[in-house]
Amino acid sequence: MFTGIIEEVGTVQRMERRSGYQRTTVAALRVLGGVKIGDSIALDGACHTVVDFDDTRFTVESVEETLRRTTLGKMQVGSPINLERSLKLGDRLDGHMVAGHVDGVGTVIRRSESTDNVVFEFEIPEALAPYIAEKGSIAVHGISLTVVSVTLRTFSVTIIPHTLSITTLNNKRSGDVVNLEVDMIARYLERLTQFGYDGRLTEAKIQGMGFGQ
Hints:
Elements: E1 8-18, E2 21-27, E3 40-43, E4 46-53, E5 57-63, H1 64-69, E6 80-85, E7 104-113, E8 118-123, E9 137-140, E10 143-150, E11 154-159, H2 161-166, E12 177-182, H3 184-194, H4 203-208
């Protein structure tokens, strides 16, 4: 579990690719503090498991599903990447609850700059539109943001200078793609309505939703 508050921007240092698999080594500093094999780190919002590390870098492995749903398969050596370690119990939740499970890829269609902020407008996959609401939360490339406006196929966010300075959004222009994760509450609400949830939660209903034994 993550919060969408980026800790640092790392740099892709090495990549090994073959069909349905990618092994990525990322140069980093802050997220290596206390890291262990098996720890979770989100790369541009996609949760990965650390399989190797040293004092200046760590390595993760991506499978076909991750490569298909995210932008990670399009990264190159030298690419900057947003990094966040998983949330510890007792930490402050400054963003929102982010699972690190990317729902799809959006495209920057407009970047409007002013003195104090930048407004980004993104085109989204049609399937994600029902889960994005005005003033709701969304993770863009792993960054917790508030939706300013939304249409059937687009949404916009306003980025403050601090967020631009510590994430890769500062490099994004029209036509660039980003990983998107919608608010998980919206997904669970849809699942409940599929079963005609009437407000009474029983063991049978929980099992019918696919939870429990």
